[in-house]
Amino acid sequence: MSASFLYTLLESIDDMVIVTEIDPLDAPGPKIVYVNKAFTGISGYTFEEAVGQREVAPVVWTVF
Questions:
Q1: Phi and psi dihedrals of 16, rounded to 5?
Q2: pLDDT value at position 61?
Q3: Helices and strands (H, E) in the chain, number of each type
Q4: Half-sphere exposure of residue 58, counting CA atoms within 13 Å on the CB side?
Q5: Number of C-alpha atoms within 13 angstroms, CB side, residue 27?
Q6: Cα–Cα distance for residue pair 1/26, rounded to 1 Å
Q7: In terms of Cα–Cα distance, which of 15, 46, 18 is closest to 32?
Q8: Which pLDDT belongs to residue 59?
């Protein structure tokens, strides 16, 4: 499986995807290295705002 196939797959799904570094597991936690378009659409954060952060504010979910 190529990297471009995986990228295309992650960008085309409707579920939020957040990829982080492995370490550190203790506070302050791992940095975000990737978020997909579903994450940016649902959360309101841009890719640039999310990547590099150790956490993002929780998304408020509304169920209809």
A1: -70, 135
A2: 52
A3: 3, 2
A4: 3
A5: 0
A6: 32
A7: 18
A8: 54
pTM of the model as a whole = 0.76
Q: Distance (Å, rounded) from C-alpha 41 to C-alpha 7?
A: 17
- Provide CB contacts within 8 A for 50, sequence distance 6+: 18, 32, 35, 39, 40, 43, 56
**Amino acid identity for residue 8 in this structure:** T
Written as tens digits, the pLDDT of the chain (64 aa) is 788 998 899 899 999 999 889 888 788 888 999 999 999 999 899 999 999 998 766 555 555 4
Nearest to 61 by CA among 16, 7, 28: 16
